[in-house]
Amino acid sequence: MLQSKLFTKTSRNAPKDEEALNAQLLSRAGFVQKLMAGVYSFLPLGLRVIRKIEAIVREEMVGIGGEELSLPVLHPRKNWLETGRWETYDTLFRFTSHYSKNEYVLGPTHEEVIAPLAKQFIFSYQDLPRYAFQIQTKLRDEKRAKSGLLRGREFLMKDLYSFHKDEADLDAYYEKAKGAYARVFERVGIGKDTVLTFASGGTFSKYSHEFQTLIPAGEDTVYLCEACCVAVNKEIIAEQPACPSCNAKNLKERVGAEVGNIFKLKTKYSTPFGLQYKDEKGAMHDVLMGCYGIGISRLMGVIVERFHDERGIIWPESVAPFRVHLIELNGASAAGLYVALQKEGVDILYDETARSAGEKLTDADLLGIPWRAVVSPKTKGKIELKARNSEKAELLTEEELFRKFEARNPKS
């Protein structure tokens, strides 16, 4: 990609109404643009990051049997009346059609849609288990949208729903989901900072589980067992004052941002919609359900909160918009190198703009692409390569550069 052709430009200053660091950096770097409180446009660079995150999440969900679908954003009022959440779900966007006078909901979550849908296809024990997921926009009427991408009114989320004939099957899949979530967070770069957290379980389970990334910008208080890397959310610490894993009492208070959660719904949503199956003896039973969410756009904000310095973003390589930022300075040309690296399959942003060296290098730090390759008269026919998360640079020949990236991205 030629940097001169980018749809967006960088900015020296953050928007005056942005307090969250993730929103400041993402806006300045041209990844997102705020439309109004809690609502952002994802610009080309930002969308590239979102797609990288999506791909990792999708791969892990398919790996535990998930089938991808896409459910409507627009929901009928009657479905939310069936579950009793029309009046109790406090962040619903509700409105009345100008023409039909029917009332609708803009989907904040999809239990009210997936359960009656599953009823059309699940009849017998032979139809179970089943697992369906989507990556889709959600809308919630948050009282105060804040923290940039960490709490929005419109956001991108992955939600998976599982359907089971008994608790043993639900429990087994729940553990699989825990493992898949751990792999997701490891692959996007925050695995070491993200802890399994016991939280309120709601109607049918004593506990649910959250995945909390320990960052100063987090909105949740958790109590961490440093020996087990397991935490307890503040909302249940009174009833669970010790580590749920090793029973240690000396839990450390930390601040976290929730990036995922999993719940055993059991029959909470199958019962209202009559979602049942017939067992081997012909008896009817309510289907048991589980749900598993990951905030895709929130995850992008959390990654920026975790990986940055005073100069800008530092993207983990797995989710970066490009792997290499190729920069030519002071009249040198890197056009041939750009073409050659592209042929090798290296995902690359090429800054061939006619700007000062200071402007180009400042932009490179702000954008946060993992590797910066500089060609200038000072490099004397070689390429200066530096990792964004390092202050050390090395001079390489083209052959050495190709070998380095081939080793990091071997051809199949």
Structure report:
It is a single chain. The chain contains 10 helices and 23 strands. It has 412 residues and is an alpha+beta fold. The protein folds into 2 domains: 3-220 and 254-309, BirA Bifunctional Protein, domain 2; 322-408, Rossmann fold (3-Layer(aba) Sandwich). Helix 1 (21-28) packs across helix 7, helix 2 runs antiparallel to helix 5 (167-187) and helix 2 packs across helix 7 (296-306).
Write the layout of secondary structure elements.
Blueprint: H1 21-28, E1 32-36, E2 39-42, H2 44-63, E3 67-68, E4 74-76, H3 77-83, E5 93-96, E6 103-106, H4 111-118, E7 130-139, E8 154-164, H5 167-187, E9 194-200, E10 207-213, E11 220-225, E12 230-233, E13 252-266, H6 270-273, E14 276-278, E15 284-286, E16 288-295, H7 296-306, E17 308-309, E18 312-313, E19 324-328, H8 335-343, E20 348-351, H9 357-367, E21 371-375, E22 383-387, E23 393-396, H10 398-408
Parallel strand pairs: 3-7, 9-12, 19-20, 19-21
Antiparallel strand pairs: 1-2, 4-6, 5-6, 7-8, 8-16, 9-10, 10-13, 11-12, 11-13, 13-16, 14-15, 17-18, 21-22, 22-23
Helix pairs in contact: 1-7, 2-5, 2-7
